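During the second half of the funding period, the structural biology subgroup turned its attention to how the target accommodates small molecules. The most pressing case was S-adenosylmethionine, which had performed well in the primary screen but for which no bound structure existed. We therefore specified the complex as follows and requested a full 3D prediction, including the ligand pose.
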Amino acid sequence: MSDAHRTRGAGAPEDETRAHHRLDSLSPRRRFDEVECTISHLLRHPHPALKGRRYGEALLQGLAARRIGPGRDGVLEIGGGAGHVAECALRGDAGPFTGVPWISLDLSPRLLRSQRQRLLDAAAAQGAPPRWRGIRADAMDLPVRRFDGLLLANEVIADLPVQGGTNTGAIEVVREIARILAPSAAAVLIEFGGDFPPSPIELVAGAGAGRHVEWSIDFRQLREAARGAGLDVEQVPLHELLEADLSVRCASYTDLWRLRRLARCEVFAAPASEVRRRFPWLSRLLLLELPPLGSPRWPDASAKGGFAQLFHALILRQRAAVSA
Ligand SMILES: C[S@@+](CC[C@H](N)C(=O)[O-])C[C@H]1O[C@@H](n2cnc3c(N)ncnc32)[C@H](O)[C@@H]1O
């Protein structure tokens, strides 16, 4: 296993975002409700836009439909956050991923503890032995020789270093994948970005909590790095992988932020009808938008694009040998 405290390159100063995650002590609730509200967090409960499935179930079923399976080793998840995707595999319908061994690799001690607790509780509720294992390590330095299964990083690679307009950290992860991926295995990197240079986003909650910078991904750089490392590359819009119904209207993060100043409600992309039924007066007073899932204003009304426009999955496999 690698030493999580090691900085990359002799004497090089540690990247600030890396240090932020390595020293993370924020509660997972604050982190994902207030600092970095991921799509998988907003859609972590069964949702009508996902045919009543949770994000993790829709994702793993979508990967299975693309002939990606758990192989011999199960799943290696990098940056599992609060552990919702792993939980779906343990007690939801995740197709061939249901109940498979799951290794979660993360830099944050706080999040690893929370994932462990979530997965132990879920296993106890199922009366099943926990098949989850946590490893504290860096995505850019994987402590694994070979992996035959699914390697998944859901909204993680934007946290990795960028130097001189290049997503150097994400490219490093792609090279690590090329090093460890077994011939029949696949890796899936999900993130926001596009065919344009990386740009920074500062994330922070009240009183400066959780402040750190993430960078959008230049998918051109990643595709090129992957091909250069001998991988086959497929890029799919995330909403297609999830088979999401983009016409379903639901609470955006912006709606929830407004609502939560005056009322108690969970940070979840609740369907518009439910929000209006629960908060008939406030939804009018606050002019809640409750946009369709496919709107560029979901999940964030102030961003340049949304889930349907900016989120992609890069699917990587070892390049098949060409027979003579
Ligand atoms: C934005 S969160 C995403 C969490 C989760 N996958 C989700 O979709 O909600 C980023 C995750 O990556 C982890 N992380 C950040 N930098 C990392 C690194 N260099 N190596 C390993 N994990 C890292 C964080 O601790 C966190 O769990």
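Two results from this model are relevant to the next phase. Residues 1-7 have pLDDT under 50 and may be disordered. The pocket of S-adenosylmethionine is lined by residues 18, 21, 36, 38, 40-41, 78-81, 106-108, 111, 138-140, 154-156, 159-160 (CB under 6 Å).
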